[in-house]
Write a structure and sequence with these properties.
With about 250 residues, the protein is α/β, with parallel strands linked by helices. The protein has a single domain, classed as 3-Layer(aba) Sandwich (Rossmann fold), CATH 3.40.50.300. It is about 35% helix and about 25% strand. A six-stranded mixed sheet has the order 5-6-7-3-8-9, with helices on both faces. Strands 2-1-4 form a three-stranded antiparallel sheet. α3 runs parallel beside α5. It is globular and about 50 Å long. The structure holds adenosine-5'-triphosphate and magnesium ion. The site of magnesium ion has 5 residues, from α1. Magnesium ion binds next to α1.
């Protein structure tokens, strides 16, 4: 089991991004180390997706720097894509293809040799407990199973860093727990994981959390430390109070 440490696997420094009159990112900064599960918690419109897109090299910045394993996600995009797994907020699978066919498609995108694909897809189907549903069409999966398939597709190339944008949104509590258990397993193996969530109570499942609001972090730390420091009884109480203070 790898302990969190060393150079950050993911780093955002003073990110600024505007869309017309809207400032989506206003100086947001965070760092995630190998073996660490970092939760970016915040209400709708806080800038979580924009920060994730900047880290994944999908959008340009008006200011600040994003780094993945020390690499620039835009200028060194190819090298970053080989080592980064991304599960966007709206992860698009082929709805008329089966679970296995979707996996095979992503295996081809990543140019995986057949033997490696076979081994990894089997392992991921087991981990996600989707093996019995390998022939089921994606559009016939439950919401939680669909997210798990999306996760399996994002992990086929064995990324060192994984970013997930609201993967538990709209997922039932049992599947939510399973998804978190999977993430903890990857993190114990040394992966750096950044997860965004609008659910404030999910903060307790992370090694560290950042509370995003209006494009910046209002607070950051280990979940229990944050609670102890504030005197609040729950994360919801703590975060809602912080957001109210920030105005
Ligand atoms: N492409 C875009 N064009 C215009 N405005 C945008 C664009 N992308 C994001 N924004 C705006 O930037 C702000 C931050 O949006 P973002 O999607 O990053 O928030 P979020 O924290 O992911 O919210 P949610 O929890 O609803 O997904 C919002 O005000 C949003 O309307
Ligand atoms: Mg979002």
């Amino acid at each position: 089991m790898a302990a969190p440490g060393g150079e950050p696997a993911l780093e955002a420094r003073g990110l600024v991004r505007r869309f017309g009159a809207t400032t989506a990112l206003d100086g947001l900064g965070l760092a995630v180390r190998p073996g660490e599960l970092y939760g970016l918690v915040g209400p709708d419109g806080a800038g979580k997706t924009t920060a994730i897109r900047a880290l994944a090299g999908l959008i340009d910045l008006d200011g600040g720097e994003a780094r993945v394993l020390g690499l620039d996600p835009i200028r060194e995009g190819r090298a970053v894509r080989e080592r980064l797994g991304l599960m966007p907020q709206q992860f698009s699978l082929y709805r008329d293809l089966s679970v296995m066919e979707n996996l095979r498609f992503f295996g081809r995108v990543y140019c995986l040799p057949r033997a490696a694909f076979r081994e990894r897809s089997e392992r991921l189907l087991q981990l996600t407990r989707l093996a019995p549903f390998a022939d089921r069409r994606a559009d016939a999966l439950s919401g939680g199973m669909y997210k798990k398939l999306a996760l399996a597709c994002a992990l086929l190339h064995r990324p060192e860093v994984l970013i997930l944008d609201e993967p538990t949104n709209g997922v039932d509590p049992v599947s939510r727990r399973e998804l978190w258990a999977l993430l903890h397993e990857f993190v114990h193996g040394g992966m750096a994981v950044l997860i965004s969530t609008p659910y404030m109570d999910e903060a307790e499942r992370c090694d560290r959390v950042g509370l995003a609001h209006r494009g910046r972090l209002l607070d950051e730390g280990a979940p229990l430390e944050l609670l102890a420091r504030s005197g609040a009884a729950t994360f919801e109480e703590l975060f809602v109070a912080r957001i109210r203070e920030a105005g």
